[in-house]
Design brief:
The chain is an all-alpha fold and about 160 residues long. The protein is built from five helices and no strands. It has helices at about 5-15, 25-45, 50-80, 90-125, 130-160. The longest helix has about 30 residues, at about 90-125. The protein is globular and about 50 Å long.
Length: about 160
């Protein structure tokens, strides 16, 4: 059996404060509450997502790029562990690499779920998803987009940290 719970737990643990180790509820609401609310609005207003084939193609490309980023992160983490601070808690680069790995892996999971749904819809020649499936896709797409923004922010932090 494939256990995906550690992937979700690792990602959720990146939503903790570095100094207090407490959950940052504002971040949780942003990354989970906003997409769920958007999906709920979509269902209530009978929004139907069209262009399933185009969205599937875009998600397939982004998923492939995230797999490549995950492989690169492995190399970055290995180099960070060999650098100053080793694998200790003071190694900021290694900590950022671990958080990035958690976020990228989780985003890949979200993307694979969305891609699977879109693939089934495309295989059934569905031009517009019904409102319920559109609601689920809105949740996944907006959640994925917010995760990509977090990944960009963390890559920026890692980049800036490497030049200090």
């Amino acid at each position: 059996m494939i256990d995906l719970i550690p992937i979700v737990e690792d990602h959720f643990n990146t939503l903790r404060s570095h100094s207090t180790n407490r959950i940052m509820w504002g971040e949780v609401i942003l990354f989970y509450g906003v997409p769920i609310a958007l999906g709920g609005v979509g269902v209530a207003l009978h929004w139907k997502i069209g262009g399933v084939d185009n969205i599937l193609a875009a998600f397939a490309i982004l998923t492939g790029l995230l797999f490549n980023l995950l492989v690169l992160l492995f190399d970055v983490a290995a180099k960070a562990a060999q650098g100053v601070g080793g694998t200790g808690p003071q190694n900021v680069r290694l900590k950022l690499a671990k958080h990035l790995q958690s976020n990228v892996t989780y985003s890949l999971l979200v993307a694979l779920i969305a891609t699977s749904i879109l693939g089934v819809l495309a295989g059934m020649d569905v031009d517009k998803a019904d409102r319920w499936i559109s609601g689920v896709l809105l949740i996944l797409l907006s959640h994925f987009t917010l995760n990509l923004l977090m990944i960009m922010r963390r890559i920026r932090s890692a980049f800036l940290t490497s030049f200090e």
